[in-house]
Specification:
alpha/beta; Rossmann fold; four-stranded antiparallel sheet; transmembrane helix; ABC_transporter-like_ATP-bd; transmembrane
């Protein structure tokens, strides 16, 4: 794996019986890059991500993440990445403080390090008034911001975000992307799936999946030039129509 490349995917495929969810995809992601993995619901984005984070075995093809093979070293991959799912990221029946402590332990941090990280998060996110509140009582926007921060507790090389801004208001979405920019600027690679085409504009490069295949991959600017349009939404519509 090249020094500045943190993800290499070659002909990766995932079948479920006769159905091909991910069809022979190949791409690379560089260190510190915000890599957008776009597509409509059901395009294969989440299935591809699950293979890359070591929780689903590919049917065929190869992939390396953070220098580790998805077949041989899935546990090493998990130690070197952060992961945030829209559907599950924090425990609703634990407080913010308890969630931070729990996930810090899962990531193998010492008690002292967990305490340091918790104090840092409380300060950075302004959690002083809600640190002892149950997560289930918080607005979705707060949950998402805390989830993202918890995924960074162990300083991972790569953070995988699966539809992180689904269902949140525009202001919270913008705040969330500011957190993403800050994290990428500090050298962490961001791999983000979304079906919001306007969010593609925030990415360094974008891969667009249609029916399990990568139909386009480039910077947002170059994709718009290639498809002779002014918005990423129009790029996606042209690809979806074939």
């Amino acid at each position: 794996m090249k020094e500045d490349t943190v993800i290499i995917v070659e002909n990766l495929t995932k079948n479920f019986g006769d159905f091909t969810a991910v069809n022979n995809i190949s791409f690379e992601v560089k260190k510190g890059e915000i890599f957008g993995f776009l597509g409509a619901n059901g395009a294969g984005k989440t299935t591809a991500m699950k293979m890359l984070i070591g929780i689903s075995n590919p049917t065929s093809g190869n992939a390396q993440v953070a220098g580790f093979d998805v077949y041989k070293n899935p546990n090493d991959i998990k130690k070197n990445i952060g992961y945030m799912s829209q559907k599950f990221a924090l425990y609703d029946d634990l407080t913010v403080k308890e969630n931070i402590t729990f996930f810090g332990g899962i990531y193998g941090l010492s008690r002292k390090k967990i305490e340091e990280k918790r104090c840092q998060l409380v300060e950075e996110l302004g959690l002083q008034e809600i640190v002892n509140e149950l997560v289930g009582s918080l607005p979705l926007g707060w949950k998402q911001k805390i989830s993202f921060s918890v995924a960074l507790l162990h300083n991972p090389k790569i953070v995988f975000l699966d539809e992180p801004t689904g269902g949140v208001d525009p202001i919270t979405r913008r705040q969330f992307w500011e957190m993403i920019y800050k994290t990428a600027h500090e050298g962490t690679t961001i791999f983000v799936t979304t079906h919001y085409m306007d969010e593609a504009e925030y990415c360094d490069r974008v891969s667009i999946m249609v029916n399990g295949k990568i139909e386009a991959l480039n910077t947002p600017k170059k994709l718009k030039e290639q498809f002779k349009t002014s918005t990423m939404n129009d790029v996606f519509l042209k690809l979806a129509r074939g």
